[in-house]
Amino acid sequence: MSQKPFRLYDSLSRQVKVLETQEPNHLRFYSCGPTVYSYAHIGNFRSFVTSDLIVRTARAIGMKVTWVTNITDVGHLTEDDVADAQGEDKMERALRSKEGEQFNNVWELAEYYEDAYKEDWKHLNLVEPNVRPKATQHVREQILAAEELIDKGFAYETPTGVYFSVEKFPEYGKLSGNTQESLRKGVRDVVMDENKHDQSDFAVWKKDDKHLMQWFSPYGWGFPGWHIECSVMARAYLGDTIDLHSGGEDNKFPHHECEIAQSEALTGKPFCGHWVHTSHLQVNGQKMSKSLGNFYYVRGLMKDGVDPLAIRFALISGVYRKNLNFTDQGLVDAATNIDRFKRADETMKAGLEAKRAGENTLGTELEKLYDEALEAMCSDLNTPVAIAKSLEGAKLISKEGDSITLSSAQSAEKFLNLVNDLLGIVRGSFHLQAIQENTSNVDSSRIEALIQERKEAKASKNWARADEIRKALTEEGITLTDNPDGTTSWAQA
RNA sequence: GGUGCCGUGCCCAAGUGGCCUAAGGGGUCGGUCUGCAAAACCGUUAUUCGGCGGUUCGAAUCCGCCCGGCACCUCCA
Q: A161-219: per-residue pLDDT in tens?
């Protein structure tokens, strides 16, 4: 098939370029997953959604995609964003925190947050990766990689661990622009380690027989360095050279820079042809940070009655390379839009059942709109335009209402399926009402009785009494809606 | 200090040299429907793109300066 070019910004060459694959029509894609020491927040999910959209778009233009996204279940040093750091371990710290009290050990803690992450993943309607490896399943390969790096002269052993020698890899800095020169100047006091040949050298293996998660290696007890896990897992599942690698913008340095150095040192081949980095999400105009404590979680928002599809919509309502401000108003706007899709979906389904004869008034226009949406996605994931086109189609479908013909409904079904496959915002696998009904403490029989009374009042044209009942319930936070078929439904605010 | 990004209507947000008298959404206002509402549907809402100057036949889009915001280098995707 003639394949549409998929244009994406590449952080390495710093330009938008067509995504190329080594094997024709088969994308090998690796994206960095979370460290499971806490719930993943919506900022984490913004970058996961970017990866999800890449996979969806690639498949929509007929590519085969092998997608690997890891789970980091080994604790890392909390200051691991310095290429090499000494610091407190994230997992260990989480275990000692208040939330950590419920776990017997770090392994349980990691497992708990891993499950939570997968649950949130489903709620946000992310497509399942082909492989979701865990760092702890690949420690053996990480040790082998450390040995090989030493053998090849790229790494050396010290009393504290095995370190990658940055000066042996002259291209270090090509991704982040952090030259070895500028790094030397930028090194903080905390990471001074006189055993290292150069302060910008980073750990491949840390020696530590006190660590809560430790493995035995030729260097004694210890645990792997953070960056080596992704190098090893990407290679294990996707080969020496992968087509695409993604992550949050903060991963660019040091994580991805170090991955490139290690992988290319090991294989002697280019590690990855295309790099994608998602900008950080801001919340109500502020950056999300631990110190500000302004994290939003998928489960927390859902508990407040937010449809997870609306969260997803809000996350993709701006292009991934620009900072996006996540606000309460934005969520409300998103929910309204999700409803538009759901309504179109209902109109379509009703039309399929009614089997009304007549012409197909939608087909041509919907096909054009979908093509435009797909084209937008192929232009560096322009989600706002893709959404605009999809919404236009949804409006056309809804407009048909009860008079939609069978052939129009069939075109609508095709369109909505395609849009849902591309953007994942038409149908969720999760039904919000289910949890809301469980958590509701409202006396529904009393409300039903009042609705019945109001219905009788309406029948006898006693509008005053009918409005009085509705007003009283509104004050309790219950909204009544009179449906066209004469029934009245209610919802809790 | 180094590096990079951004400033578009009341709000969110595309567009990065002519198809822009600037997409789409939210909100507003008006209408259809409804006993009245709500919802839905239809229509309305920027001669203008932070400011000033320049390049060009032509700029929101390129260049310069200024003002404002943000990100990474340091927790965090």
A: 999 988 888 888 888 776 655 555 544 434 456 778 887 788 899 888 888 888 999 99
- Spell out the domains of chain A, with CATH numbers in brackets: 7-278 (3.40.50.620), 283-423 (1.10.730.10), 440-492 (no CATH)
**Rounded CA–C1' distance between A417 and B32, in angstroms:** 31
> What ipTM was reported for this prediction?
0.90
Q: Minimum mean pLDDT among A120-124, A148-152, A247-251: which range? A: A247-251
Is pLDDT at A401 greater than 90 in this prediction? Answer: no
Distance CA A311, CA A324 (A): 13
Which tokens in the block code for residue A39? Answer: 């719930």
What does DSSP say about strands A281-283 and A324-326: parallel, antiparallel, or unpaired? parallel
Q: On the CB side of A466, how many CA atoms lie within 13 Å of its CA?
A: 15
Among residues A324, A244, A340, A275, the alpha carbon closest in space to that of A42 is found at A324
Within 7 Å: CB of A273 and strand B? no
Q: How far is the CA of A435 from the C1' of B44 (A)?
A: 40
Contacts of A219 by beta carbon, 8 Å cutoff, 6+ apart: A146, A157, A161, A162, A205, A207
Burial of A404 (C-beta count, 10 Å sphere; 0-12/13-18/19+): buried
SS3 A203: strand
Q: Which of strand B's nucleotides are less than 7 A from any protein C-beta?
A: 1-6, 11-15, 23-27, 34-42, 70-77
- Residue A419 CA and nucleotide B65 C1' are separated, in Å, by 46
Q: Residue A431 — pLDDT band, cuts 50, 70, 90?
A: very low
CA of A446 to C1' of B70 (A): 52
Q: d(Cα A478, Cα A475) in Å, to the nearest integer?
A: 7
Lookup: nucleotide whose C1' is closest to A45 CA? B77
Give the pLDDT mean for A389-412. Answer: 91
The pLDDT tens digits of the residues spanning A209-268 come to 888 888 999 999 999 988 899 999 999 999 999 999 999 888 888 888 889 999 999 999
What amino acid occupies position A256?
A: H
Tokens coding A148: 């090989």
Pair A298, A31: CB distance under 8 Å: no
Look up residue A439 and give its two tokens.
């958590």
Query: Are A446 and A473 contacting, i.e. CB atoms less than 8 angstroms apart?
Result: no
3-class secondary-structure state, position A210: coil
Is residue A281 within 8 A of residue A43, CB to CB? The reply is yes
